[in-house]
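So, is this right?
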Amino acid sequence: MKNIYTKYALYSVIALAVVGFAPSTARADDACLFFGDLSTGSVGEEVRCLQKYLNKNGYIISSSGPGSMGSETSSFGEKTREAVKKWQTAAGIYPATGTFGPLSRTTYQAEIKKSTPTPSPTTTLSPSGTTTVVPVISTPVTVPTPVATPSASETAIRKLLKSVYSQLEDAIDEVDDAEDEGDNTAEEIEDMRDLLEKAEDRLVEAVMAYIEEDIEEATDLAEKAEKYAEEAVEDISSGEDKEDAEQALEDADEAIDDARDEIVAAEDDGDDVDDARDLYDDARDKYDDAQEAFDDEDYEDAIELAEEAQDLANEAIDEL
């Protein structure tokens, strides 16, 4: 089964890391702790906290009654799902499914991290009659994070994240194409998708590490993601590989037939053919191995074994 969602999820995650985070009026000290996916039917305080977050930021669960501002519930229903979908759309998460999963949690944490309380000054009159500005903590407001020039290490990890994302996107396409063409077994395709999933997980973790400003960890995770993506496409077979293997088997079979005819003719003439026949037998064994590899759709091994079989057949003729 194709993982169509993966590419868009990765795009949204990378966009968060290298482009910027969606603005939010959420406060860090109001942050929710999410320990798993939330979807229709979920129940618990995580749901209540999510509803409060959505209501506070304009994604209203309900205008009145259960789920409304101040009356949030612990039950994830259809109204909550619709509010989550609106929030996901605004945050650039595609597709907006209404399920609050890993990507949504990553986006939420990024928004919370961007929000911080700031002191608001008040003006008082001192006994001497002079005006004094006294900073006090009032209702926190969101202050945009100043845009700073990224350091060399930040620039490097951004490039790496973009590069790995692009590589993983290409790998997903290649595995999809391999599945459509049918040159790889279902088991091989499943193994490839397992590797792609590992690559995606490491890349998301790398983005999270980058958000947490742990550049070293982000780099290590991104490199692991890159390695998994490379491994995923290493065993992809193409129609051309299959055709090459078929041709190699045909050439080997022809060489073996020629060797057999030459040996029979030499034997009829009373020549010593023992060494030639040993080489011929070895050639037949290699050919059988090549055919078995071909049947297993291991076309690279099939080509190599077929070429060895052809060489042995030719050596058998040279021995006569």
